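Sequence design from tokenized structure. All designs in this work follow the same two-part layout: the structure record, then the generated sequence. An example of the structure record is given first.
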């Protein structure tokens, strides 16, 4: 701000809000021919996505600009489902693309998962639980003194 109380720099110039680097919870709803839902955790850091849930892990990348973001992920199954539970992805490597919006502490996604010959639409909400900048290393933490 200058002395007149106006923003410095070109008219309308603002600091762009970033997708916060951190640990998020994730809730996904899949619709269309194949339906399902999942909850898990995901770390977003410097354009990278890493996360997982009870049966799958996700890796990918994203970019953002002016409150909108887009990205892609590859989903791999790491654990077999118990008898009677049919997983939508069924041991396939699945590619997902998404677009959405973000604001401080939340990110919403609309995407498509390519599963064999099916395109499965999905929606997800990410909720920030811990910023990476706020996480102390073990050596920085204060531990109780032994008795």
């Amino acid at each position: 701000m200058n002395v007149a109380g106006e923003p410095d720099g070109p008219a309308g110039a603002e600091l762009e809000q970033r997708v916060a680097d951190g640990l998020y919870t994730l809730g996904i709803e899949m619709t269309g021919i194949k339906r399902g839902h999942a909850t898990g955790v995901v770390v977003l850091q410097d354009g990278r996505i890493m996360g997982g849930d009870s049966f799958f892990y996700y890796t990918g990348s994203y970019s953002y600009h002016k409150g909108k973001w887009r990205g892609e992920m590859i989903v791999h199954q790491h654990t077999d489902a118990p008898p009677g539970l049919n997983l939508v992805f069924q041991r396939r490597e699945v590619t997902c693309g998404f677009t959405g919006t973000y604001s401080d502490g939340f990110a919403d996604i609309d995407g498509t998962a390519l599963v064999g010959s099916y395109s499965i639409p999905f929606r997800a909400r990410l909720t920030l639980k811990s910023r990476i900048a706020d996480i102390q290393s073990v050596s920085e933490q204060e531990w109780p003194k032994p008795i």
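The domain at 22-131 is CATH 2.40.128.380 (Lipocalin). We note this feature because it recurs in several other targets discussed in the main text.
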